[in-house]
Amino acid sequence: MAEVGRAALILALGVAVYGIGASLYGARSGRADIVASGRRAAYALALLSVVAFVILEAAFLRSDLSFAVVAGHSSTTTPTFYQATAVWSSQEGSLLLWLTLLSLWSALVLFLTRRQLRDVAPYATAVLLGLGAFFAGLLIFLESPFDVLASPPVEGAGLNPLLRSPSMMTHPPMLYSGYTLFAIPFAFAVGALIVRRVDAEWIRATRRFALAAWLFLGIGVLLGARWSYAELGWGGYWAWDPVENASLMPWLIGTAFIHSIMIQEKRGMLKVWNASLILATGVLCLLGTFLVRSGILDSIHAFGASTLGGPFLVLIGAMTLGSVALVVSRRDTLRSEHRLDALLSRESIFLLNNLVLVALCFVVFWGTFFPLIAEAVTGQRAALGPPWFDRYTVPLALLLVLLSGVGPLIAWRRATAANARRSFAIPAAVAVLAAVALAAAGAGSALLALGMFVAGAFVAGTVFQELWRGTGARRAMTGEAPHLAVVRLIGRNRRRYGGYLVHLGMAVLFVGVAASSSFQDATDVRLAPGEQAEVGEYTVRYTEPTARLVATREAGLEFIELGARLDVWRDGEALGAMTPTRGYYPSQDLAGLGAIGRFFEGESVSEIALDAGAGRDLWLAVQPDIGALEPVIREGDAVFAQAAGGLSPQFEAVALAQTLRGLVDRYASEAPPAQFRLLTSPMITWIWVGALVVFAGGLICLWPAPDAARRRATAGLAVRVARDLGRVRART
Amino acid sequence: MDPSRKRKIRLGVALSAAVLLAAALVYTSFSASSEARTPSELDTAQAGVSYQLTGKVVEGSVQRTQDGLDFEVRDRDGAQAVPISYQGVVPDPFREGREVIVTVQRQGDGFMGERDSLITKCPSKFTTDEQPS
User: Which residues of A touch B22 (CB under 8 A)?
Assistant: First the structure.
């Protein structure tokens, strides 16, 4: 099957290169049949990359260890869900996923726009196929997922235990969907600039793709944060690590883009700005992909020295230069149709929001690349930590939340005092009340957090006021029941109310961030059974250790789990027991490690205990002290080394299981002290709740409105009539 | 004032604000950063200055203490090592032989790790050089 996969990739590259040539030649010569052939090449590319992906996925699912990537990233003892998702834990598999998603979205957009934008689409096709050809080339020449091993190992390395979390395994497809979906507006922007057709048509054709990209990228970033909080054993969700920043930057600029295109659609302004934003987003998406794989920056994520740096740099350089050249050479056609009328208008608030987002992105960019900048300037690498990032991002985020309350309500063109009073009197009153109440409750100790709470209250005030007024107006007209009126109101104005919901969710999310980071309590303690510790208003007592062997299918031992049972009280009230644990996975590196010892020399992963609540989360992690077990481990290793070869495999397996069972029992009975990390974070759940609201709002914006479908149908009819009229006129 | 002049002034104000902010950003980044060093480059380290140390944990050097960890960090491809005392969060993938990043300050002959600053690189994600053969 590997040969079929490789052949599919080679064909994919051929088809993509053909499609680029056909699209460009068709566009230059004005031959619609050749342009259509180029478009069909994009469909073929999608089909071929899906074939390659399915072959690789099937190899993972049946644990075909003759595939080098399968042997390196999966194993027969890996649970089925993780066998399926281990595909993208490998460099090769993740690049193939990129190509597959890119080619699927490309095929979809080219199919949907096959009768529109006849001048722009061929160039967009060429750009999309160019990206496809680049990734197909990488997969053929540098990182082939279809390399076979001459002598397959009996067992694979297994999926890295740290990645065995549903949120981590769905994180890459979401992120790549976001990256690849942003390639669509990018490609159409390039096409529009090339043919100098810079009205809002290309924006309308790709708006939904930009929105979907924004949504998926956001989900991807958030899943990463959630994984970090629940899986990594340090209790944080964001550390300004280069790899995190790499996914945040295109999201920030993409957010600016989906706001500012509204100004171009409604008022024909900001054309240079919009083109620049989407071109920058496209480049940043590639930069994100590159940063994760190149290892040029020191990051939590060590990605093995890879050969991909060069090709990616060339592509990113070409995209950047091409983008700048396009915008500069087309600046005359990109002139605004209108001027900014007043500083207090929706246009200028949107512009301000854009500037804040771009500033945020610049801060993140500067901080991320600072090690390289410092090395270039001073000759010495230097790095910036989270405090530096927070100093700039916190005030900017505060401003952003505030603007998200002002922007949707302020009048277009010029806001009057009456307009401002009507729109903002109630939300401002809500915000003032919130400020007074919170200051009285003692939140004044953290001024920036207080500011964020007040801004959040203001945004919530604007959203609920608008919903209230809209529902009221609708009920006055239709006499519907209140709940029906709300649903219909949102359903008929999806972009508007979906947007409000996104703003509300963002405000909730930032309130969660502000509260949990400003008012967190953390303790690191070493406790023996019977001892207790305090964290915030909680008391935690270590009652007894837990220990067990965890086996998967076919009785294969997967890992050893050591943990602790803790009784928890809150303000003296018993909350029950919580059991954080730690899993010890056997090392796959067999050389020099004993049969028992290899379980403690491999990966070990925290399984935290979490009591999540609307008010606060209690988060507990344990680091068992395995020092007490070391003599037993060494002894067991010696026994097994001596007996090596003399035992039948079955007997050896039984003896190993018995020894490990004895080891685990011994840990439970000896009960050595263990190291604990105890955290309580107020309102951290609101981050995830806010994110869910954001995504619900995003989905509402994305969902095609029924009347839009009708409009498309009538537009199709109009086109046909016009075409027939044209024919008639040509004849006469 | 005529509109075009007003626009120019506005543009000027906006641009100078942007330049000022950017200058602040650049200035603070150079003063707030900690120098990234390898163990062999720490010879010249001064007390009271934070360095971001990158290197590998020396085999057999890790010792759990009452309130933290003692270990040594060596150059990625060398033997020169420095001792570190560290308290705070120890990431899951931390172990001997693995690459770590930790913020340190000189203290006597050794170095004190800044609380919670220890980062261990995830070992196997996307590596291309550890394929079993």
Answer: 362
